[in-house]
Amino acid sequence: xxxxxxxxxxxxxxxxxxxxxxxxxxxxxxxxxxxxxxxxxxxxxxxxxxxxxxxxxxxxxxxxxxxxxxxxxxxxxxxxxxxxxxxxxxxxxxxxxxxxxxxxxxxxxxxxxxxxxxxxxxxxxxxxxxxxxxxxxxxxxxxxxxxxxxxxxxxxxxxxxxxxxxxxxxxxxxxxxxxxxxxxxxxxxxxxxxxxxxxxxxxxxxxxxxxxxxxxxxxxxxxxxxxxxxxxxxxxxxxxxxxxxxxxxxxxxxxxxxxxxxxxxxxxxxxxx
Length: 273
Ligand SMILES: [Zn+2]
Fold this sequence. Notes:
The protein is of the alpha/beta class. The chain has one domain (about 5-255): Alpha-Beta Barrel (TIM Barrel), CATH 3.20.20.140. Helix content is about 45%, strand content about 15%. The protein contains nine helices and eight strands. The protein is globular. The structure holds zinc ion. Zinc ion binds next to loops.
């Protein structure tokens, strides 16, 4: 089995996790900027975090033969502080041209507040101006449907090319809107919230899977860095072919991420888009 982990917060994971992922067949890992489990109190905290995402973590991953890529932003939770958010937006250009930076993410909404929408629009503007890919976080539980609609409106109004935007954490009640708008959709596999392997594969079976990917979104909380390969086992159990599994967990993320010319998988892996 080979797979790409398109959404993992590796700064909060152990070296054992790297070993397990590579052993299970992981050939590239992508890390969106996000909340660190606490609110940072100054722009300097973000400058250090962006250095970690663009310099330090790629070096740590390389020790396991794993190419590491990142996305940059201030997450929606901390965007509530407009002053801090503007300060962070102003330093993103310092890091945007680092070779492992895929684009802007994971931006989006958390509580669907006015300030979050404002900073989401500013991020989208930066991505459009610099012709970069976009990774979008959608809110949790009862806020998800409303937030997804707001997000789709902002992206449409900004003239974003839908095929260059992935909207993450979709569930049964939001996946159709995202795919119908022409975007890519990410299904997040969590032990207790978001999707289980069975729910994820139900969605894959129900919708055309060409613009879907799976991710673990593993972070500092209760989460599983092996959620993607474990879900591949669920597909195998249901009788999906090896080619269909490979397309979903390797081919699809490869196709989306290769829109950034610097994206690559581990040297030992063949594979074409
Ligand atoms: Zn995340």
